[in-house]
Amino acid sequence: MIQGPNEIKKHSHKKTTGTVLKDFSLLTADDIYLFNEGNHFRLYNKLGAHPMTHNQRQGVNFAVWAPNAEQVSVMGNFNDWDRDSHRLHPLQNSGIWEGFIPGLESGEVYKYHIRSRHNQYAVDKTDPFAYHTELSPQTASVVWDIGYEWNDSDWMKNRHLPNSHKSPISIYEMHLGSWMRVPEEEDRPLTYREAAIRLVDYLLKTGFTHVEFLPITEHPFYGSWGYQCLGYFAPTSRYGVPQDFMYLVDLLHQNGIGIIMDWVPSHFPSDEHGLGYFDGTHLFEHEDQRLGFHPDWNSFIFNYGRHEVQSFLISSALFWMDKYHIDGFRVDAVASMLYLSYSRKPGEWIPNKYGGAENIEAIDFLRQFNDEVHKNYPDTLTIAEESTAWPLVSRPPYVGGLGFDIKWDMGWMHDTLDYMSRDPIHRSYHHDKLTFRMVYAFSENYVLPLSHDEVVHQKGSLLSKMPGDDWQKYANFRLLLGYMYAQPGKKLLFMGAEIGQWREWSHDRSLDWHLLENPFHLGLQRWVEDLNQFYRRHPSLHASDFSPSGFEWIDCNDAHQSTLSFIRRNDNNGEEIIIVCNFTPAPRHNYRVGVSLEGFWQECLNSDSKNYGGSNQGNLGYVEASPVPAHGRSFSLNLTLPPLGIVFFEKKR
Length: 653
Hints:
This protein has about 650 residues and is of the alpha/beta class. The chain is about 25% helix and about 25% strand.
């Protein structure tokens, strides 16, 4: 793989005889004080490896936190991986070891050798603050200059607009390594730069406003999809060097597409070269496994009450926004952070000081994280993957909330997929699966996720979950997607759903792009394109996503015929969109829906259109409201509801 302008010196035989200089420090007394009290949120400027000039000598300054070490040294190609020749020195009583090594430059491969004062423990560790790492399965850190000339000033100046709660937010969730591959070259993943042009073109075609990357942060096990992260300051080297990822972000921004990054402060893997047992003690994690070890993922849990850990994690978040222009975070597994009892049996967890299961330290951390992100970047988004009924997740800390902008609506996802997977003959008995959401829909600011979690671990693809023959599966799936876009809340769709992936997603292969040779799959993609464009053009479908004023039922009680009808509106301009869904394969003729305005209503979208692979049943483009009262309204539309279809109507002006 091409490494870019500053090639990693994997095979360099250059040696340095220079000793570690101790007459220089990047860290001031204020840095040390803020770090130790948990309020230093730009630690990446001080800790880690930084190429620089000192006394007219080029070199690299190294600094690492290891308070329980008796010796810390830097080793690499430059000293034949000698564990003793380049020892760092302790910096006052901060727990930080530091030193400047002349003669080194960007591209040097290195690790820290740490000898603990406890139990004669000695270990080789990668740098927690490394900007770049060796290509997996190698694990060394790489000295790197992350300078880059950005060309996205217009986006950065105006990104408060596409990230606003009142704006359309349609997120394409993707795993970069399996989105598209190069079959001619042993099916390798695209590099960051290769993906950039293709992804921009694809997102512009399909109409998504944002892309969300499954964790880009460096991770040792590819099969974790990035959720077992160790490099909290390094984009994975599997697809290129840091500047290559910057180029990808830059190009997306230049084309008006926002970038959300999956960020994982909930746990980290136990690989020996990583953060765990870093200096012979449980430095980043709790010592007691009832607090510090996650039973589901066999990983360590951060000690959120430790000040230096708070500084480390929040520095990571701000780093991605400072240096990579990231527009938001989707924070993974928030529920696992909030509950001490998460996925544990009685006796396997320790109550908080009040006797409860709430993780007070994690709550404080999440609030501080959100405060710092929004204080520094009020035009960005923080999104919580939180699967319980924890209150006020997307409300500010000053009213008792956690401070996130948006929360995943996992309840909607589970209820809707449960309903849609049922044979239509049984759906009338489960009508509440569709209607229950509106009881709580505005208690939080929600995004509706049809995410990667629903298409892995033998769950099958979304299309394969749909009941019936193939035609009905396609129709059901178009109905599901249309229903998601019609509901209040922002939208998220995992890659592959938009082309009707039949196979369950696998991180080891590309999406099945050949499916687009089939007219039904091409129709599905057209449907998603048209939904995105319609959603973006009509403020009634997005401007009041988080307000009850933007939604009104027309009829939510027709369980017998498995239909729903409702209004989405925008109070600012009086626009109304009427949506009617038929969740059965039987077309409904002369189906009357009450409306408040007379005149012609345009049928703007119909999932049963031949253009999408449907049977082309509908309303011939327009319906005139009759002075026949229905559903408590003075007028009504006499409609044809297509089988397993959804139709959108707009008042003709």
